[in-house]
Amino acid sequence: MFSKLDIHQSVYRERLLEHLLIGDLLRHSWLHAGATLEVSQPSIDRSGHDVVLEANGITRHVQLKSSSRCGATAVQKVHVGLSAKPSGCVIWTRFDRQTMALGPFLFFGGEPGTPLPSLADFRIAKHTKANAVGVKKERPNLRVVSLSRFREVADIPALYAALFGHGFYGECGSTIDSEG
Description:
Blueprint: H1 2-8, H2 10-32, E1 38-40, E2 51-55, E3 58-68, E4 75-79, E5 89-95, E6 102-109, E7 124-126, E8 138-146, E9 151-153, H3 156-164, E10 168-169, E11 175-176
Parallel strand pairs: 3-5
Antiparallel strand pairs: 1-2, 2-3, 4-8, 5-6, 6-9, 7-8, 10-11
Helix pairs in contact: 2-3
């Protein structure tokens, strides 16, 4: 049942996963980071990012990807426009198809405040369907990034730290270093 539903409701599932992820990040911000996370979504998808997240003075332009935990997806197509953003990144959400529970996450990006690693050496993506003469044309704005180039992030607190750094707020609102 879930496979058939996944195929016919892929946009619904994609939006659901996006809302769940953003909700979990907002909850983490509320509970542990002084409710400082701001979320924006572009009206036009020109630069490859699906959402803009800002906290701790760090702005992340994020391309969102997802696949089920049991899926065999080994690559993702990353938009070169993310490289032009100050701190672009890709969050690849793995999820349980039965419960829609999120995690682990896969992260492709630099440290908070640093640009996306160079995409220059990655191969150019091609369309999945061939044209009338059987040629799969290149998609010059997309690069193919393999699973091995993504860093696994276990949970939302670790993902939040990968995005914005390790500082968080204690019960009285004072900044606490997560290592001490």
